[in-house]
Specification:
- The protein is α/β, with parallel strands linked by helices and about 220 residues long.
- It has one domain (about 10-215).
- It is about 35% helix and about 20% strand.
- Strands 1, 2, 3, 4, 5, 6, 7, 8 and 9 form a nine-stranded mixed sheet that branches.
- A hairpin with a 7-residue loop joins strand 6 (about 155-165) and strand 7.
- It starts with 7 loop residues before the first helix and ends with a strand.
Length: about 220
């Protein structure tokens, strides 16, 4: 697998470039609802749905705007092998077709959670699927990670949706779920987690339909 190799200079280069890309490709990027309040002494396991090529970049943006932690993102090895620069801003790889590689990537995720209060983002679906896909098809990796890590961690669901709403460029909407403090013994299971994310996506769709306004992260 490919491990993350954070480099300060990579952030300096990438952050303004990504801001330019966002402004070029999106009409707006809005965070709806209230930003989450997370204990300062706990690592964060951020769990978004995965419906666009941009989702990893969205996680990067949310971290810069809200969390301001050292962030790590699991992505497919075949993609990270093509874009190795992303490892220098926190990406690491998984190869879903290789069981041995899966275990190695999950163990590495546990290793990352043991570092100083990081934000680690994993896509529980494990593949790109339309946001309206039901069931979401969560894999069991999150449960494995929490069992292996053992200690308390802030588990944070995230709903992401893009829509064309009367503009040439699409709008992006984020909605965070409640912060759940879990350890190996208190996690309520992948089925519960998947249902929680489904309800969060439905809530986001309702808010978009009713034209709720939030914080524009492109400002």
């Amino acid at each position: 697998m490919i491990r993350a190799q954070h480099r300060f200079w990579a952030d300096i280069i990438f952050q303004p470039y990504l801001t330019w890309l966002f402004k070029r490709n999106f009409h707006e990027i809005q965070l709806l609802g209230t930003p989450p309040k997370i204990p300062d002494d706990l690592p964060v396991l951020l769990l978004p749905n995965h419906s666009t090529w941009w989702d990893g970049f969205f996680v990067y943006l949310l971290n810069k705007k809200i969390f301001r932690r050292t962030t790590y993102l699991m992505m497919l090895e075949k993609q990270l092998s093509k874009y190795k620069f992303f490892a220098k801003i926190g990406a690491y790889s998984i190869e879903p077709e290789n069981r041995r590689n899966i275990i190695e990537s999950l163990e590495y995720t546990v290793e990352l959670l043991n570092q100083e209060i990081p934000l680690v983002s994993v896509f529980p679906q494990g593949q790109l699927l339309p946001w309206h896909t039901r069931p979401l098809g969560y894999k069991r990796g999150v449960e494995w990670i929490l069992r292996k890590y053992g200690k308390p961690v802030a588990v944070l669901p995230l709903a992401i949706r893009t829509e064309f709403l009367g503009e040439k460029r699409p709008s992006v909407f984020f909605l965070f779920g409640a912060v759940h403090l879990f350890d190996a013994g208190t996690f309520q299971g992948v089925d519960w987690l998947e249902q929680t994310e489904s309800e969060l996506l439905d809530d986001l769709a309702f808010r978009i339909l009713h034209e709720e306004k939030g914080q524009n992260l492109l400002d």
